[in-house]
Design goal:
Elements lengths: L2 E4 L1 H7 L2 H16 L3 E2 L4 E3 L4 E8 L4 E9 L7 E9 L5 E5 H20 L6 E5 L5 H11 L4 E5 L3 H15 L2 E4 L3 H5 L4 E4 L18 E4 L12 H6 L1 E4 L2 H7 L1 H9 L7 E3 H7 L8 E4 L4 H15 L5
Parallel strand pairs: 1-7, 8-9, 8-11, 9-10, 11-12, 12-15, 13-14, 13-15
Antiparallel strand pairs: 2-4, 3-4, 4-5, 5-6, 6-7
Length: 308
């Protein structure tokens, strides 16, 4: 068996953010068409270990990702992504940290392109951890930003992130201590934290704002207030995963702030154009294996010479 192993630098060289956004968008359309076999991910040790898998029937290709998560460790996420195809003996093994960062950024890019006003150009990023930079890269790819505000408990890390993004993307960046103040009057908000309580109040948001929330992935985590979910158009990545894992959605449903009928899956929104860019919009993601399959597929195209 021939195994091609890719580290972070090789992954970054092979996959651009615009390509990742296009691949994830097409992946969600394929998911809606029923092309994937995708079990709900296995969660062990209350989220300490995750196993995710996806099989794409038309191409007889599969991806399996294993992760360990420890937010007291640096890096917090460690794991591997394995890509396999029937009919081919070569396998691809890629660093899961980089794949996860790119695919999580890419889905926010897809949602932002769908839901944010076309003229949107200002953004607040809450959180400066490993997922943060790709949230900004993806948003900037679909809505070129002129201003970025960063909120983080880790001042040194936030300063380094702001400096790096300013140099890379040419965006004016500023650190803001208070989240409610930081989200005021901006066009887009990206939440990438492990918070267990809402990060800001509904009253602090502009009347026409798009919010991406990708940080919480367990029922005990929560980045958004019930009032925002009740007020906004809410788009989610995948219903079964969201109802099992999203603390925001679970809490809002239990409180009666929203009903399951209020939740629109991203694939449906993309295929049917059922969402209008008006008022407040929210995209909530806990991540599904198909996203990792899309990035692994791009890597396979480049490094194994495969057609996806």
């Amino acid at each position: 068996m021939d195994v091609v192993t890719l580290g972070p630098d090789e992954i970054r060289s092979a996959v651009s953010m615009p390509a990742a956004i296009d691949a994830v968008r097409n992946g969600f359309l394929a998911l809606r068409r029923g092309e994937f076999e995708m079990p709900t991910r296995t969660v062990l040790r209350d989220g300490g270990f995750l196993v995710m898998s996806a099989h794409h029937r038309p191409t007889a290709s599969a991806m399996i990702k294993t992760l360990s998560l420890d937010f007291d460790r640096d890096p917090a996420i460690v794991g591997t992504v394995v890509w396999s195809e029937l009919g081919h003996s070569r396998q691809l093994v890629a660093d899961a940290i980089e794949v996860t960062r790119i695919r999580t950024g890419a889905i926010s890019g897809v949602a932002t392109d769908l839901l944010a006003p076309p003229e949107a150009k200002t953004c607040t990023l809450i959180g400066a951890g490993g997922q943060a930079a790709d949230q900004v890269r993806a948003v900037h790819a679909v809505r070129p930003l002129t201003e970025l505000r960063i909120v983080s408990r880790g001042l040194e890390r936030a300063e380094a992130l702001g400096k790096a993004l300013r140099a890379e993307l040419g965006i004016d960046t500023a650190l803001v201590a208070d989240a409610d103040e930081a989200v005021r009057d901006v066009d887009i908000v990206c939440c990438a934290t492990t918070s267990t309580t809402p990060l800001f109040s509904l009253a602090s948001l502009a009347e026409h704002v798009h919010v991406n929330a990708i940080g919480s992935y367990r029922p005990t985590m929560r980045e958004l207030p019930d009032e925002l979910l009740a007020d906004a158009t809410v788009v989610i990545d995948e219903r079964e995963a969201i109802l099992e894992e999203s603390g925001e959605i679970i809490h809002a449903l239990a409180a009666g702030a929203i009903t399951e009928a209020d939740l629109i899956e991203l694939g449906t929104a993309l295929a049917e154009g059922v969402v209008k860019r008006e008022g407040r919009t929210v995209f909530k993601s806990v991540g599904v294996a198909m996203q990792d399959w899309t990035i692994a597929g791009l890597l396979a195209q480049t490094c194994l010479g495969r057609e996806k």
